[in-house]
Amino acid sequence: MPETIAILGAGESGVGSAILAKKQGMRVLVSDAGKIKPEYQQTLEEYGIEYEAGGHTESRILAADRVVKSPGIPDKVPLIKKLHEAGIPVIAEPEFAAPFTKARHICITGSNGKTTTTLMTYHILSKAGLNVGLGGNIGKSYARQVAEENFDVYVLEISSFQLDGMYDFRADIAILMNITPDHLDRYDYKFQNYIDSKFRILQNMRPEDYFIYCGDDPVTRDELSKRTIIPIQLPFGFDREYRPGAWVTQEQFNIDINNNPFNMSIFDLSMQGKHNAYNSMASGIASRVLDIRKDTIRESLTDFQGVEHRLEPVIKVHGIEFINDSKATNVNSTWYALESMKGKVVWIVGGIDKGNDYSMLYSLVREKVKAIVCLGKDNTKIHESFYNVVDTIVDADSMEEAVRTSYYLAEINEIVLLSPACASFDLFENYEDRGRQFKNSVRNL
Fold it and tell me: Which CATH number fits domain 4-91: 1.10.287.110, 3.30.200.20, 3.10.310.30, 3.40.50.720?
């Protein structure tokens, strides 16, 4: 009797998992509580995969041998609770797909920088001529690539939500960028629960595997002191030498593994700013672990193009610069954004608060922000947090209004920065939709 798989969520991840399950001869039902995008519906029909939309047939899902869950569905949902009570395994896409490939896995997680680091690592390995796939929480579904491609290496961006549904999966190279309070609404507002989730990136690793992490991050350092770490540790950071590992000191970027040093000027990195130096160090270490030539790494770090919606310059309008940082969905990301600003800022902030503590921004906001434009359905917490820090705080009901208001508040040689520090789902489909609306509104000024 073939295995029965129920897949919850018919997005990129769910449809990719369905294709892989079908290819492996499993009986598949894809179930989505909402609408399914026409392109995904068409794909499911082309593959002859059964699906339902607008609700779940619980009896069928509870009859499955395993359930593959979209990372967007919280464990607190009643159907997920019923599955757990029935003892039916509920797993994430990477957990489901990994047994069907012999490829090596570079897995990148963290509260900030994981998308840029994932794309940067993929860029270096592609440039080096490796047969490499890109997936996880970014781009084309990892499961679909396992079904339809034959890559030797995968570079995967892995979120905490995916890690929560991963048990037997093993990374060959794990990268942890940092850990700051994020998604606490999904973790009972307990920071330790979120930390534990991030450290699942290390599960099942062997002594010959590699763990790359930010030595400057106090939360990571503190957690490492409590745990036995099995893989080889390769830290990175600023102002002290990490051997083996990577560091930046006196404007020089250094990597040293196996007493084989590599260095370049930090001014030659295509992505400037402290946060991007961290991203470059992490991807550089992973590349050296794989014996990528130093010239290839140097060239790749010099010509890498940034990530859309992450500190993305839009245009200047009458001497006012507009920057799209819609991908900043937590306070720490916004800290990096503000820290890298070179002039006075009108800051567009707000959305769905995930248990944010804005206090870490106070000194930067005091120094750099002249006005705040709130963009969210409920801006009470932002007003309460900053009324003593910034004189001008105004509300906007739409992106168009937020951009227009910011434009009037800013002066020549100042910056309008969209860096929301919040999730986007109150007014937008996702952070990409929010960023695109920002760019369109700026161009329509």
Answer: 3.40.50.720
Return the half-sphere exposure (C-beta side, CA atoms, 13 A cut-off) of residue 358: 21
Q: Can you give the residue ranges of every domain in the chain? A: 4-91, 97-303, 312-443
Answer yes or no: are the C-beta atoms of 120 and 279 closer than 8 Å: yes
Residue 392 contacts residue 369 (beta carbons within 8 Å): no
Asked if the model's pLDDT at residue 117 lies above 70, the reply is yes
DSSP letter string, 259-284: TEEEEEEGGG-SS-SHHHHHHHHHHH
pTM of the model: 0.80
- Does the structural domain 312-443 have CATH classification 1.10.10.10? no
Element (H, E) at 5: strand 4-8
Counting residues of the chain whose pLDDT is more than 70, the rounded percentage is: 100
List the structure tokens of 297: 């790494």
User: Which tokens is 94 given?
Assistant: 């990477």
Amino acid letter for position 330: N
Q: What is the pLDDT of residues 78-108, one digit of tens each?
A: 999 999 999 999 999 999 999 999 999 999 9
Cβ atoms of 258 and 244 closer than 8 Å = yes
Domain 97-303 falls in which CATH fold? UDP-N-acetylmuramoyl-L-alanine:D-glutamate ligase (3.40.1190)
Local structure of 348: helix, strand or coil:
strand
- pLDDT tens digits along 288-324: 999 999 999 999 999 988 778 888 889 999 999 999 9
